[in-house]
Each structure stands twice: as C-alpha cells, then as structure tokens.
Amino acid sequence: MQKGENNHRGFIKGLSLLLFFLLLFPAHAFLQDKKGIEEIIGDLRAEKPLVRRDAAAELGRAKDARGVEPLLKALRDEDEGVRREATKALGEIRDARAVEPLGEMLSDADEFVRVHALEALERIGGDEAVDLIIAGLKNANPLVRMSASASLGRIGDKKSMPPLEELAKMDALSYVRFAAEQALAQIRGEAIVKAPEHERTQRVVTDEKGIPSIAELKQVAERIKGQYGLILDYKKYDVMDLLDIEARMRMRHPRDTMESLLGDLLTKEDKEQNRRLFEPKQ
Fold first, then answer.
1. What is the distance between the alpha carbons of residues 215 and 212, in angstroms, rounded to a whole number?
2. I need a labelling partner for 32 at 20 to 30 A (CA). Which of 64, 192, 212, 255 fits?
3. pLDDT value for 117
4. Domain carrying residue 90
C-alpha cells in the first residue's frame, strides 16, 4: 500500500514538473521556432505567389534575423505582392544589411513597393537610411514623395529640412507641398496644422502653400469608390488620409478586416456605411 502511494505521488510530482517546464519553455521554443522558420523560408521559393507573399509576411512577424538574406532575394521576385511583403518584413526585422537593397527598391515599378521601402528605411534608421529617404522626395510618384515627407517628419533629422523646404515650394501638387510643410513643422517642433472641417468644405485653396482644395478631395474619393466600392464622406478627410485609404485598399489581403485595415482612418459613419465590403462571402 505504501509503495503504491509513493508511486502515485511520484507520478503526480513528475507530471507537475513536466507541466511547469512546458509553461516556462513551450514546445515551439524548441521545435516550432527553428523548424518553423526554415519551413517558412522554404515557402519563399514556392510556385504560388500567394504562398510566397504569406511566407514573407510571416518572416516579418517573426522578426528573426535568419529571414534577412532570403527576404533580400525575395525583393527580386517577379510578383509585386511578394516584393511588397518582403519590403515590409525587412522593416519589421530592422537589420542594417537591408538598408542599401531597400534604397534600390525606391526605383521599383510598383509604387507601393516604393512606399513600403521608405517605411522600412524609417524603421531601420541611421544616416544612410535617412539619405535614401531624402532621395525619395524627388521620386516621380506623388504618393512616394508624400510618404518620404511623412517619414522625414517623424524622424526629425534637421539635415532633411532644406530638401523639404524646396519640395514645399516647388512641387506641382498642392497636397505634396502640404505634406512637406507638415514634415517641416514636426522637425521644428511646431504644431501640425490640420484644416478644420468647415475650412475643408468651404474653401478652395489657390495659394502655393495652401491646404488641398475640395475638388482634389472629391477626385480622390471618387477614384476610391470606382476602384473599391468604398463610399466616403470626403469632406471629413484630408487628402493624405484619402490617399492612405486608397493605398491600403489596393494592398488589401483577403484576411484583412475593416478594423485592421482602415480602423484608424475611417470616421464612425463611414465604417458603418462600408462594413458590407468586409463581410465574409457566403
């Protein structure tokens, strides 16, 4: 009897120690991590672009330095979606080895690859990255110039002020000039000016440094509606918000929800009005 009780106690004690060990060191820390990363890296060579896209995104979420070299190779993928995800992932990992290759992506044929490259360079940081972002101010695509301005504003490096000042004066598009002005205000430590709603709805701006006109807001909103079915009360947005919405809709993944994709941009009313677009298809 005593022997049986001792065996039972020993079993319980052993089981408790095993559970405690697993809580401290989950199985995936030993198996899934190493094996999982290698499998994901292997998926970057899959035949289907969607598999390669998901693999690049997963490597970004893992933030594992082992993914850097394979992701750098994925920057040359023929599928623009793979290049986008690889660019974003390198920004998540924040390895300095990616700086120069990301700078090369600022000439990619896909405008959103270029935008992601700017964001990744901002995340990685450093003098070389800032210089490459400054070079983005001269990009042929206005969305890229706006994104470069926003990144430089957040970084706050004063060496970017002269090129931003030039962009604020010389760019052909008012909303790009406005983005440069906003970035300069951030660097100077000034309050960022956002036009009140009544100004955006009643005023058509014609001066060189003015806020984008209501006609520009309407034009972008109509383009978003035509391409994605998203109906917006454009008078309640800045043009940069609308362009951000357009960019996110273009890069939308089937698993994206309204909150994950647009939750920080849409007004409450527009969320309700467009929720049907994100409902699962039966």
1. 8
2. 255
3. 95
4. 39-125
Q: Is residue 130 part of a domain?
A: no
Q: How many domains does the chain have?
A: 2
126: left (phi over 0), alpha (psi -120 to 50) or beta: left
Is residue 10 in a domain? no
d(CA 265, CA 282) in angstroms, rounded, equals 27
Helix H or strand E encompassing 23: helix 2-24
For the cut 80, the answer to whether the pLDDT of residue 148 exceeds it is yes
Tell me which amino acid residue 130 is.
Answer: V
Quote the pTM value: 0.64
Which of 125, 145, 169 lies at the terminal end of a domain, its last residue? 125
Which pLDDT value is given to residue 28?
41
Q: Encoding tokens for residue 261?
A: 């994709």
The rounded distance, in Å, linking the Cα atoms of 117 and 98 is 10
How far CA 128 is from CA of 102, 121, 125, 147, in Å, comes to 11, 9, 8, 17
Instruction: Specify the higher pLDDT residue, 256 or 186.
Output: 186
- The 10 Å Cβ neighbour count of residue 222 is 12
Tell me which residue of 211, 226, 220 sits closest to 242, measured CA to CA: 220
Region label for 189, one of left (φ > 0), alpha (ψ between -120 and 50) or beta (otherwise):
left
CA distances from 26 to 18, 23, 34, 63, 149 (A): 11, 6, 13, 18, 44
In a domain, 9, yes or no: no
What type of residue sits at position 218?
K
Per-residue pLDDT of 65-102, as tens digits, reads 999 999 999 999 999 999 999 999 999 999 999 999 99
What is the C-alpha separation between 22 and 43, in angstroms, rounded?
A: 29
